[in-house]
């Protein structure tokens, strides 16, 4: 500063003109200062953003494997829960089906536990029925009081026996009483004969009565069937 003053004084003493000072230097200085400030303002956020990215990048890198591992474990647990729930529901359904099947089998065993005994018993019922049918109705008169009494006793015994058997599911049926249509599931055709006053396939005669055990055919009825054609 002191040297600049000496140079200016020597120039004035020698009569030399002073160095021309441009009139726009303050404006240039102001523009330069503004440009520097703007450059500094742009550079600082960029630097901050770079610093934030530099700081966040290691954090993301350190958290990503852990979060992906936890996510994989959660998905695995969800799959296990779904599989266990499905197995549980299937087990419950199988157990209920087993209960129902066992209940039906027990009921069937109860219904047909007396099947062999019933087969042997129907022979005795047949003999009692034959004994009652061999007595002609004209013989049941007042002069044959003993025969009438015996017949009535046998008839009463048969009624009580059939009522008792019916309580246990054993029933006797006679298809010729109601002129039923022939059914191969419950009837056994012994012979066929024409009957002009009856339709074809009608049961008109019962040779041996049939028996049902709890709705199932224990013995088919032996019958005669109408055949006109």
From TrEMBL:
InterPro entries: GrpE, GrpE_CC, GrpE_head
Protein's cellular compartments: Mitochondrion matrix
GO biological process: protein folding; protein import into mitochondrial matrix
GO cellular component, one term: PAM complex, Tim23 associated import motor
Region (Disordered): 47-74
CDD domains in UniProt: GrpE (cd00446)
Pfam families: GrpE
Single Gene Ontology MF annotation: unfolded protein binding
PROSITE patterns from the UniProt entry: GRPE
Domain of life assignment: Eukaryota
Record flagged with keyword Mitochondrion: yes
Keywords attached to this entry: Chaperone, Mitochondrion
Function as written in the Swiss-Prot or TrEMBL entry: Essential component of the PAM complex, a complex required for the translocation of transit peptide-containing proteins from the inner membrane into the mitochondrial matrix in an ATP-dependent manner.
UniProt similarity note: Belongs to the GrpE family.
HAMAP family on file: GrpE
Name the record gives this protein: GrpE protein homolog
Taxonomic classification: Eukaryota, Fungi, Dikarya, Ascomycota, Pezizomycotina
């Amino acid at each position: 500063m002191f040297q600049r003053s000496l140079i200016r004084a020597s120039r004035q003493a020698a009569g030399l003109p002073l160095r021309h000072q441009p009139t726009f230097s303050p404006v240039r200085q102001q523009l330069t200062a503004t440009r520097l400030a703007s450059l500094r303002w742009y550079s600082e956020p960029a630097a901050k953003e770079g610093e934030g990215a530099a700081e966040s990048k290691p954090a993301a890198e350190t958290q990503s494997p852990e979060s992906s591992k936890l996510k994989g474990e959660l998905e695995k647990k969800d799959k296990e829960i779904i599989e266990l729930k499905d197995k549980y529901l299937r087990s419950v359904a199988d157990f209920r089906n087993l209960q129902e099947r066992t209940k039906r089998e027990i009921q069937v065993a109860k219904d047909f536990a007396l099947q062999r005994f019933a087969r042997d018993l129907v022979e005795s019922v047949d003999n009692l029925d034959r004994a009652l049918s061999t007595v002609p109705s004209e013989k049941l008169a007042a002069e044959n009081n003993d025969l009438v009494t015996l017949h009535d006793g046998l008839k009463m015994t048969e009624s009580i026996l059939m009522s008792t058997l019916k309580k246990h599911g054993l029933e006797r049926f006679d298809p010729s009483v109601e002129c039923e249509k022939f059914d191969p599931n419950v009837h056994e055709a012994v012979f066929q004969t024409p009957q002009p006053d009856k339709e074809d396939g009608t049961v008109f005669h019962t040779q041996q009565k049939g028996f049902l055990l709890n709705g199932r055919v224990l013995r088919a009825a032996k019958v005669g069937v109408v055949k006109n054609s």
